[in-house]
Queue: 2 jobs
Job 1
Amino acid sequence: MAENEPVPAGRLTIAYELSCGPGQDPRSMAEDLALEQTVELPVGCVPDAIAGAVVGRVEEVVDVGGGRARAVVSYDPALVGNVAGQLLNLLFGNVSLKVGVRVAGIEWPEALLAEFPGPRFGIEGLRELAGVAGRPLLCVAVKPVGLAAAELAERCRRFAIAGVDLVKDDHSLAGQEWAPFAERVARCHEAVEEANRESAGHTLYLPHLFGGPNGLARRARRLRALGIRGALVSPMLLGWDAVRWLAETSGVAILGHPSLTGSLFAPDHGIAPEALLGQVFRVLGCDGVIYPNAGGRFPFPLAACEAINRELRKPLGTLRPAFPVPGGGIDAARIPEWVGRYGPDTIFLVGSNLYSRPDPYAAAKGVVEVLRGWS
Amino acid sequence: MAENEPVPAGRLTIAYELSCGPGQDPRSMAEDLALEQTVELPVGCVPDAIAGAVVGRVEEVVDVGGGRARAVVSYDPALVGNVAGQLLNLLFGNVSLKVGVRVAGIEWPEALLAEFPGPRFGIEGLRELAGVAGRPLLCVAVKPVGLAAAELAERCRRFAIAGVDLVKDDHSLAGQEWAPFAERVARCHEAVEEANRESAGHTLYLPHLFGGPNGLARRARRLRALGIRGALVSPMLLGWDAVRWLAETSGVAILGHPSLTGSLFAPDHGIAPEALLGQVFRVLGCDGVIYPNAGGRFPFPLAACEAINRELRKPLGTLRPAFPVPGGGIDAARIPEWVGRYGPDTIFLVGSNLYSRPDPYAAAKGVVEVLRGWS
């Protein structure tokens, strides 16, 4: 949403980009959308008392030419009712099943933000956990799925000795038979702690959390029992309210992974990456958010990366800022260039590029030295 | 997947449609995909012991012309590790962030199906709960959000008196202040029970379940305590493993709603609707699956509707068949036509069209009479 636009006080205000087919009027599309996302009824069947308060309100419709329009619709935040899933439902639930509707921006009323946890640690808190002030951080993914727990732990140990700030599970690691969760997490954490003692380091190990209500709660308790301080979650795999619950109750820092989000990032239908990854993930409690960096394995535009960075770090109610975590095929040799572009409040996630080197651990150490030399 | 193709025994086998950009070779795309969805490493960095067992195996690549190809990749089902989220991750997690990849079909090994609950009731079980043999069923949505619990309950009562088989919450109803969950569910259920006593009917009330681990478990217990026999869930809002957990533990019939799934249904990127709604939703435990019917408010093609119907009802391991639940703007006047096309093992979900009539309850009764007359 443009900075200079008036935002209705106290309303959740969403800017949509609409693609209008032949004969489609953008104002009618916006009005349909405001009904579809709330009462799911034609306007004539909505009780009067509800029509004014509950139905989305079309604030503005601007035809931008080329069959496209920009519509701003505001909603009573009481519709969310303190449920993360309902926030997503209000943003794009039924409308996902239409075509040519894109959530381009979200303005959050303070009262709605106050219902959600936001990052428990945020940039400053995660820096304290990792013992890193002022410079960008390095995160390495421990992989691949299929290795035994002891083999994964040895990789963790060597990356920790190399001085990597965060060692996280690949999000494909769950409870598979090759390395069952309890054994894997205990071994990997112990290996990192051992390396920290050996090298006086502060590397954090972040296991991947997954599963249904009971399993997730059990795994979160295990993390606490082991003294683990962070975890990786994939909101689209785990569930929006489960992420929020972890942020509120687990006591660990949360790194959000974008698995399964990609179909939402189509140019003319979905949710803008900076709105979903930069805002929603942060509001639900992610202290860092992974996204596929431009120039990597995924076709993600630089402008989207920069917009995500901006949204994660900007003032937003009383929420703490969160770390952008560009990944998805970063070339370690280009880290200095990315640091120059993204600045120090960034965690660089490097995985496959390090594993492709003759000595991944020496290569990781080289990146750490570059980042430590940053100023 | 075509019926006559050999499927590798015991492997989870996925048929992808690939859109190849200029200079893109479909076989390389398929091989990248098989790596991306498992080890997330270039082929040269995968330990030998894992390369054979864990990396996806490209079974077939067929160039179908026009820059499109069909690729079949098989996976060791142990990758799923009995976690629903990991099933989705394996199907389309990281690949969602690429472009031009569509999951067109899934072949399930028996051992993988056996890990998941599938429908607890299925078509026959839900028929028994609703006391309806041999004919199609009518489901009506109680709405809109914004009404008080007593007003929603009165709508439930009147639809039950009209003989509607299932009365379900709109999926926008959660725990909002206008009608808090506990009060709303108790009143709506009691209203339906009262109507059932009055008219010797068997109408079922299905409240919408939502929330994080603790809240969901608490709400499921409340349903049991009240004697409620079914619930509505939105898997993309609630979380895949939460749905599976409800199917396994709650004892209620599960109706799955497609909120937020729509961006996955793009023609050249995503998951085919019949694979997601027709297979995945069923495997995770939905007894009925709602989808937007052709000719309604959503641009859903008839072929997709028919494919979903087929997948929900077809033999699949030892899983019970599930009800297709076409909705999203069905015109009550066209029900006879849809019954002729879809057959008796269908639940018709009608909402806004009934509310648009001068007397929604009389209109609902009319539909019930049509369905009762079906033979």
Job 2
Amino acid sequence: MIAVTTYYTTCFGELWEKSFSDLIREALEGILAQSKLDKKEISAIFFGNMLGGIVENNLHTGANIAEILDLHIPIFRTEAACASGGVAFHLGYQYLQSNPGKTIIVIGAEKMNDASPEKITTALSSAASQEEQEVGLTFPGLYGMLAQYYLHTYHYTEKHLAAIPVKNHYHATLNEKAHFKRAITIEQVLASPYVATPLKVLDSSPISDGAAAVILTNDPKVIKKARAYASILASEVATDSISLMNRKRLDTLEATTVASGKAFAHARLKPQAIQIAELHDCFSIAEILAMEDIGFWKKGSGGRRATEFSTQFGSGGPLITNTSGGLKAAGHPVGATGIKQIGEVYLQLTQQAGKRQVKSAQYGLAHNVGGSGGTAVISVLGV
Amino acid sequence: MIAVTTYYTTCFGELWEKSFSDLIREALEGILAQSKLDKKEISAIFFGNMLGGIVENNLHTGANIAEILDLHIPIFRTEAACASGGVAFHLGYQYLQSNPGKTIIVIGAEKMNDASPEKITTALSSAASQEEQEVGLTFPGLYGMLAQYYLHTYHYTEKHLAAIPVKNHYHATLNEKAHFKRAITIEQVLASPYVATPLKVLDSSPISDGAAAVILTNDPKVIKKARAYASILASEVATDSISLMNRKRLDTLEATTVASGKAFAHARLKPQAIQIAELHDCFSIAEILAMEDIGFWKKGSGGRRATEFSTQFGSGGPLITNTSGGLKAAGHPVGATGIKQIGEVYLQLTQQAGKRQVKSAQYGLAHNVGGSGGTAVISVLGV
């Protein structure tokens, strides 16, 4: 068994007083303190980060972490745009499959608010193809096109999209680490200014700073010592054309479909078995596509289903999504997001989610996407 | 057994007519054509690149590769400064350890010459700590300090350093893919202008464009079909403080010592068993330190030993190093370097090295370093 035994996250938000390095250090010290592990028990570290190079000329972060911990262990930085954290988790899981009796840290971090809005917008479009960048397609622009296509094809309106951030903001009011701890209404979403039609400010995840870490282990002694653990039943990565123009369909992210199909097969579960999911809601349309692509909702039904609010905490629905607040309201410090998703699923499955604790969830899923769907990671945990 | 069965590299050099994407495509198409594998036989791809984000706002290259190949397989980008390629190889090797019967591509690429000299100098210093960057320590500056310390401590002169590039340039005259296919003399090295005292232009590896790829497999059918293969006996990664000021010693790269110690233990070999090595000679001092840190030469003897030229092709010495020409003369397209090293060892061990073929080598080693020693990868291959 490979288990998640501990989770630590910094607050997410505009953390003006903390540097990239401060965030990494806080997450490392936090996860070690919380797990009561000595740093010498750690065999390797996987680190997810997207923008350190572009935003502050900071690469080779593995050696940065080695300096912070004063260790010589292997440390690996992975990057897959906004899926950097999820990919780091996946590779850590792979690593343990061939290294019995080991304990590792998987950490993700991003420092975004020190860059100007222009710089961060350009930096984020590094996740898109060179052609898309050249024609001026920003990240919201790409998801705006996906949203336009979806609303047109399945006859929905912007009001259907707005249900997603309303739910996720409500969840964030129950998460003290979230970027936006306030509820919003459908009317507020609809009244907020457009970013890329039909997507508005309140359909869009924010520019956040933060870091998050989990302990993964297959060492029976470490598992036994842990206060609570969840086991990893599957983790799969799939890719797709980086450019939207080379995709076969625009009402689905095929990378999500492929990764979730493989993950369910590996875990020997059906989508209906999942009670908790953290989904990649960088924009409201993204959560609707995710619900359909993973198989929770029928293709094309997502607009209607979203407005039923059956995935909201307290609704009594069979599947509650983005209890952390999602990328939209918990915040989206890119490299940290995929780790926070795993951490939230771990908290829920081990009854440590406090005010937002969903009752007796046995299986949880995390879904992390890079760019406009060029990479997707699906991980399934169980207790 | 996990084997290297095929190697393809583009020419290394100032490739003005080729984009980053062109180089990746050439290496992918080249490795598939040469291996006679169908792309559908590939289960995963590991990609090493350092500077795509900073230099041309190009991240999420995994999805770029997915688009080129029209595949949905997992593709992982890794970055560890100049060790990005070596780390990609290491993670690919790890991946196969837990995935039997699979075949993967490990590829590295870098496009450096499109950036201005100022931009590329700043970009490369992203491998150093923020403090080192702030005080103006460039990459040659860091290695210049290591060289000063070494020459002073062990009483050598710049002439001793100069032997390294003279040997490596000679080797590059025998490698049609090399950046500099011309021989140089000790006098020419000493007469070349200083970059960072005591290092001169001809002590320093160049700014190169290029891409390289290898096929790794543990599928017996693919191994059987291969024209020639070498098996991977060990691959180890170690890290160290990113800043020189936090290192315990300056006459050694401890990451190299730790990684090579673990690799020899895992391969059950002693350094004396190795007949072929590709070493990370980003600057002449780096090859001398590597020879000592790996255990080929006694600590402090490297200056003298270098001037004996016993590691030069044709010398009859028991260990020949950097037959490709090394980073210095074959060129140093950063992400591609670690893959080219593996490829050169593979060519030598399988008698495919043409004019520079070393006789009957059974064991070979590749040594790839990130930054000023914050990361080191040691891989051992055998036939």
